[in-house]
From TrEMBL:
Protein's UniProt name: 7-alpha-hydroxysteroid dehydrogenase
Listed transmembrane segments: none
Keyword terms of this UniProt record: Oxidoreductase
Family the UniProt entry places it in: Belongs to the short-chain dehydrogenases/reductases (SDR) family.
Top-level taxonomic group: Bacteria
GO molecular function, one term: oxidoreductase activity
Organism, scientific name: Loktanella atrilutea
KW Oxidoreductase (keyword) present: yes
Pfam families, per database record: adh_short_C2
Annotated InterPro entries: NAD(P)-bd_dom_sf (IPR036291), SDR_fam (IPR002347)
Length: 267
């Protein structure tokens, strides 16, 4: 079975930077039509100027996907440009700290809106589009949705309470929605990532030099992932090669979640 997504149309959220941008670029190189969606218009425009050679296969969309109208406009933009949509990658992730004992702290609600409710609503809209454009009697999957989450959802970190809770909820949403969408031949899976060598992490490590060794010590494979390794996993789940895979959370963390943090600290 082929891993190819050539000729498919994909929407990638959070595509102005980080993993969202990495996935969008990866999909373009793989021959897909890609709509880059984000709130950062300036960053998207800069990226579009870098993709002039692929201009026929790339579009940008700027909007706040927490708003239902923006979701509808994103779907319309994609269909107007490429006629269909075949893949959705929910890669937009917001990280914010939490003061767990402060009743005025709204970070949990904010994280749940950005990292759970928004991908859920967008997935519902895209799923309806998948169903509408499916031909009667066609075989196999009619669309694939991939949600990016974090191993923070499996760890107890009070300072990242909102982010951790939202990621745990997103993984459960992926499983539950996969069952709901399966009768319509729509697949939904997740990629749960550990530390990735993004621009933001590299900048943070420059200011926290000892943190790099802590990450390496906590990772059995002894290194930090590069974005391409996450992108390859996303492409697999989006492709026909994963045609019988749904409701799965694929953890790409170098084995980090296999270790007891206490044991790592002792050794």
């Amino acid at each position: 079975m082929s891993f190819s997504i050539k000729g498919r149309t994909a929407i990638v959220t959070g595509a102005a930077n980080g993993l969202g941008l990495a996935v969008a670029r990866h999909f373009v190189r793989a021959g897909a039509n890609v709509v880059l969606a984000d709130m950062d218009e300036a960053a998207l425009e800069r990226e579009m100027t870098e993709m002039t050679a692929d201009a026929d296969h790339v579009r940008m969309f700027t909007g706040d996907l927490r708003q239902k109208l923006s979701i509808a406009n994103l779907v319309s933009t994609t269909v107007d440009a490429f006629d269909t949509v075949d893949i959705l990658v929910n890669a937009a992730r917001q990280v914010a700290g939490t003061a767990p004992l402060d009743p005025e702290d709204t970070s949990v609600e904010d994280m749940l809106m950005q990292n759970l409710s928004t991908p859920l609503r967008l997935s519902q809209a895209i799923a309806r589009r998948f169903i509408k454009q499916a031909e009667a009697g066609s075989e196999g999957s009619i669309g694939s949705i991939v949600n990016l989450s974090s191993i923070a959802g499996r760890r107890a970190n009070p300072e990242l309470l909102g982010f951790s809770v939202a990621n745990a909820a997103l993984d459960q949403m992926t499983r539950s929605m996969a069952v709901a969408l399966a009768p319509h031949r729509i697949r939904m899976n997740g990629v749960q990532v550990g530390s990735v060598l993004s621009a933001s992490l590299m900048g943070w490590l420059r200011d926290h030099d000892s943190a790099r060794q802590s990450i390496l010590d906590a990772t059995p494979l002894g290194r930090i992932a590069n974005a391409a390794e996450i992108c390859d996993t996303v492409q697999y789940l989006a492709s026909d090669a994963a045609g019988f895979v749904t409701g799965q959370i694929v953890t790409v963390d170098g084995g980090r979640t296999l270790l007891d943090p206490a044991a790592v600290a002792v050794h």
